[in-house]
Each structure stands twice: as C-alpha cells, then as structure tokens.
Amino acid sequence: MDGLVLPVGGLICGFLAGFAAQYGRLCTVGAIEDAVIGGDYRRAGAWALSAALAVLLTQALVLAGVLDLSATYHARPHLDVLGLVLGGLLFGLGAALVGTCAFGLLVRLGTGDLRALIGALVLGLVAFAATGGILSPMRTALARFGVIDTAAIGGKTLTGIALAQFGAAAAIACVLIVAGALLAFALTNQRLYRKPRLIAAALVMGGAIGGGWLVTGVLADPFSGQRPESLTFVGPLGRLILQWMGEALSNTGFAVATLFGVGIGSFVVAAVREELRWEAFDDHREMRRHLLGAALMGIGGVLAHGCTIGQGLTGTSTLSMAAPIALLAMVVGARLGLTHLIEGGPLLARRR
User: Fold this and answer.
1) At residue 279, what are phi and psi to the nearest 5 degrees?
2) Is 69 inside a domain boundary?
3) Domain that holds residue 298
4) What residues pair up with 79 in beta bridges, in sequence order?
5) Is the pLDDT of residue 1 over 70?
C-alpha cells in the first residue's frame, strides 16, 4: 500500500490543479497579459490568493515539524542568480510565444488541443537534453557563474534566515507578513469578487500545492528515497518521455503522476462544459512559433529550476529567495514576448 502513496497522491494533486485551471481559467501567462496589456489584475489577484494559501499550508507543515524542506532545491543555500534570471527570461518569452506555460500545455492537452501535445513533447525533450543530455554541458557551465552562498546567513529561505538571525518568532512573522501581503493584494481587488469561480479555483490550486508537500514530505514512506516536492512541470515532462521509452509506467512516482492528473482534471471540466474539441496548428508560422516557444520553456525551466508553477507557486510556498527572482524574470520575458506579438515581428505570427 505504501507504494501507492506517491503515484496516487500525485494523481490527486495534479487532478486538483488541472481541474482548477480549466474551471476558473487560471493561467499565469493570461494573468500577465491581462495585467500589463489590459490593466486587469483579477487573475493576478487569484494567483496571489493561491500563493498565500500555499504559503500558509506549507509553512504550517514546516512549523509543525512534520515537513523538512532542507533536501529541496528551494532550501539549499546556493542561490544561482544567473541561472534564475536567464532561465526565467527564456521561459517567460517561450510562454508568451506559445500562449501558456508548461502547466497550461497539459491543461490544454486535456481539452483535445493537439498543438499542446506537440509543445509538451518538445518542451520535455529539450528539458531532458538540458538536464542530462546534449545541452547539459552548457547548463553546467552557466551554473558556475553568479552563484551566491547563503549558508552564512541561514540559507536562502526567508524563514531560515529569520530563524538563524532572530529566532523562531521572526520566522513565524515572515510567514504571516508574506501571506498577508499576498492576501492583501488579492482581496483588495474589488473586481475579483465578481469572479467567485476564479476565487474557488485559486483556493483549490493553493491546496494542491500544499497537498504535494503533504504527500511527498509527510505521508510518503521515509525509506522510499522520495525527497519532498510539490507541483512543477518542466523536469517531470522530460522524465515522463524517458520513462515512456525505457521504463514501466508502474514505476511512476509523484511528479510524473501529476502530469496525468492535470490532463484528467482538465478533461473532466471540459467534458462537463462541452468544451472538448480537436485543435491543430493553423499554418506553418503558428507551428514555428509554438515549437520555438516550447523549446525556450524547456531550457529556461531547467535553468530557472522550475516553471511558473514550480517556482512561482511551489517555490513561493517555501519562501525561497529564488522564487521571486525567477518569477520576476519570467514576467519580464513574457512581457517582451507579448510586446513582440502585439507589435508584430518578421519572425513570428501574432498569437491567436
């Protein structure tokens, strides 16, 4: 029975995330586009609400002493600023070109979008190549530059630094301040209240992030070798492709199981709403744009150690300093990509 905790837990967490995204039209790229182009911060507020709940749930597990984040990238003391910035810029640019992020590709795939299938395959292949394949030497070389060792100040999480410098009360205060700021940004947006479906979806998404930490860090067999993790979608796409080619899917762990869960959750909502439809590329220009964008997200997600969910929500839930750096770079990259698409460029057609 213990062997089912990770795949079943991953499937459930992924299902909740996919269900929420399709149900409430949650999309990080869409939130950026709404905010910077249309001045509409409702989806950005929903994202902040998800992040606030994820922070509270995750840090409650940590403060209760049942979740140890020290083995995760988010808590390790090395802060690779160059990789976070460069990777975030590339990921954001690629997401703008595709019109969604790695997570969004899986959500779209659940509704019958064949463009998302091609994009997910390209993203996964490039991510795998950057992790342990032909592109890995470049990634390794970049990793040697711009690295800051934060061990002397207590690590790279705000709670770790506060605990080391000022004590446990300061660590708790950090959690409350960050969560409170995110909640304030979300709940002071009066237009968000007109979208109860969006609010509900945001809460489910935040719960899925906390659920991931619960499954892998608390419920999993401590001798399984599973390190604590929550939702992220770039690296797992690469692992799924490798596993599909060379391993039995019966060995599926938490991260790969979440990919299937997202697609199923999205499919259920789309089926109930009668939104299932086959979609393909309109022409070669759209296909070229999607392929380029997916490739940029693959390499960018590896360099940034996560996607808009893996760094944006999961990273934020740990209060890691890496999360806002990567997320800000993703926003800038997406903004540049959106500007190019809106103004029109010789290389790429405007996104439909």
Assistant:
1) -130, 140
2) yes
3) 2-343
4) 148
5) no
